[in-house]
Amino acid sequence: MSTVNSKAKSYVLPLITLTSLFFMWGFITCMNDVLIPHLKNLFQLSYLQAMLVQFCFFGAYFIGSLIYFIISYYNGDPINKIGYKSGILLGLVISALGCALFYPAAAYAAYGLFLGALFVLGLGFTLLQISANAYVSLLGPEDSASSRLNLTQAFNALGTTIAPVLGGYLILEFFAKDGVVTAESTQIPYLIFAGLFILLGVIIFFVKLPEFTSEAIESKGLGALKFTNLKLGVLGIFFYVGGEVAIGSFIVSFLKQHDIAGFTESVSKNYLALYWGGAMIGRFLGAISLNKGIGAGKKLIYMVLTAVAVFLVILSIVDLTFSQISYFLVFIVLNLLGFMVGKSSPGRTLALFAAVNVLLLVITIFTGGHIAMWTILAIGLFNSIMYSNIYTLAIAGLGKYTSQGSSLLVMAILGGAVIPVIQGAVADVMGIQKALFLPALCYVYIVYFGYYCWKNLGHIELDAPAKGGH
């Protein structure tokens, strides 16, 4: 439990401030998908070498979380000692430093320096991952904490949707010299990002945020691992983040292939925005689906209207016409049907969405042209609720071991470092399309985890508090 050491008040301004943090968090994370093809061409890298971008970035999550876990185990929770606000500010400073390091990396045109900058950036995001979500849960009544977390996750997804378009334009076009993309193309954009992190830190420093202390009982040993759902959930997060990141990392290169779409990088980045935009649509729909205060009929109406509204927002963001992305509406309808069949059961919905993604990947692997293009882009829609559902189910019933279990789940984000690298190695040998069998296997495991939890944890409500996106 957490106790807020301040009188009940409106936390609208702090919530808006932290929502902007989640937006930037998603934006910068998704910029990796733009960087990968850019750096691959710039340094003439193999797919395996290019995937080191994700290995260093998401590997920092594991290293940072492991260090944090060890310190917490022997000396107590560091964030609880310095305060969550200080933890967020420290995370922002480290993130800004990581962005600033892109300048010397580009000046020396050294791939190793780019990877080092990404590792530092990942360490900053690790602190934000640990710190920011707890704050969001405090900014208002406890019974509405889940809806606030889903809202911030949706704006995190908005950042991942805009990043390929805006970030891709800055690096691939605006700062390209005479139409030629060079290492220096990343210098000014990432200095701007560093400045935005510092600005956000200054704003958060002056915004009054609630202070709270933890009353949770800290337990020695690895007691959380005695819970089967936690052990299975750690693997679930590993495979989910790994599969999602691996697919996103390859979409631009996949769409460049002549037997798929033959798009340039500048065009492909707009379709990459659809992949991440699908996650945003699904999270908004999930937030409505979680609301127990809305009747089934009204809930469906609200979900349909929200899906249309968010689709129009995405259409306004990407540099594509309605006719070019109209096929995406078919998969949005399929996503809506998925929520209806899931019936607000977290395990059932998770297993169903993962099964759909397996099917979409199989179609992508064994077809070609625009069919393969649309089936791979639609995966983002069904990724939407996976992190929060896996997290919620994994920590269900942990009691005093919940905090320990949560830190193990954050470590499992390591999947975003490992799976893309393995897929890169497979793609170098078999090609991108056949290498997609790897994320398909990841989703097969999630089908199993969702089914296990559906049958064994059926009493857990879908609106149980879940902590943030990856």
Report on this structure.
The protein has 22 helices and two strands. The chain is mainly α and 470 residues long. The model is unreliable at 1-8 and 460-468 (pLDDT under 50). The protein has one domain (12-456): Growth Hormone, Chain: A (Up-down Bundle). The chain crosses the membrane at residues 12-35, 47-70, 82-103, 109-136, 157-176, 188-209, 230-251, 271-288, 300-318, 324-342, 349-366, 372-396, 408-430, 436-454.
Q: In a few lines, what is going on in this structure?
A:
This protein is an all-alpha fold and 470 residues long. The protein has helices at 12-42, 47-50, 52-75, 78-82, 84-100, 102-107, 111-138, 145-174, 187-206, 228-256, 265-290, 296-317, 322-325, 328-342, 346-366, 369-377, 379-383, 386-395, 402-411, 415-430, 432-435, 437-456; strands at residues 2-4, 212-214.
